């Protein structure tokens, strides 16, 4: 089960993820919405995923270039 997905400390990044348990061997989808308003140039963001499977949080990184 995905317990939480952090927004990386930025209000411009909004994650959504399945709230129901994901059976072993199955998959779920984490969607991250990034709002580039007021930003330009290169960016790199990271969100951290916490599950009930134990172990450390996993990081997901995404990057791009905002062209005004």
Strand order across the largest sheet: 1-4-5
Estimate nothing, just give the exact number of structural domains.
1
Q: DSSP helix count?
A: 0
Structural class by sheet pairing and helices = mainly beta
Give the beta-strand count: 5
Strand content: over 45%
Roughly how much helix do the residues carry, as a percent range?
under 10%
In quaternary terms, these chains amount to single chain
The 3D shape can be described as: elongated
Rg is: 14 Å
The major β-sheet equals:
3 strands, antiparallel
Mean pLDDT across residues: 92
Written overview of the protein:
There is one protein chain. The protein is mostly beta strands. The protein has one domain. It is built from no helices and five strands. The chain has strands at 2-5, 13-16, 31-34, 41-51, 58-66. The strands form two sheets. A three-stranded antiparallel sheet has the order 1-4-5, with no helix packed on it. A two-stranded antiparallel sheet has the order 2-3. Strand 4 (41-51) and strand 5 form a beta hairpin. The termini are far apart. The model has no long low-confidence stretch (mean pLDDT 92).
């Amino acid at each position: 089960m995905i317990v939480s997905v952090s927004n990386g400390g930025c209000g411009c990044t909004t994650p959504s993820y399945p709230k129901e348990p994901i059976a072993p061997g199955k998959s779920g989808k984490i969607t991250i919405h990034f709002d580039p308003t007021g930003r330009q140039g290169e960016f790199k963001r990271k969100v951290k995923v916490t599950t009930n499977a134990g172990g450390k949080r996993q990081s997901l990184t995404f990057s791009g270039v905002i062209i005004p």
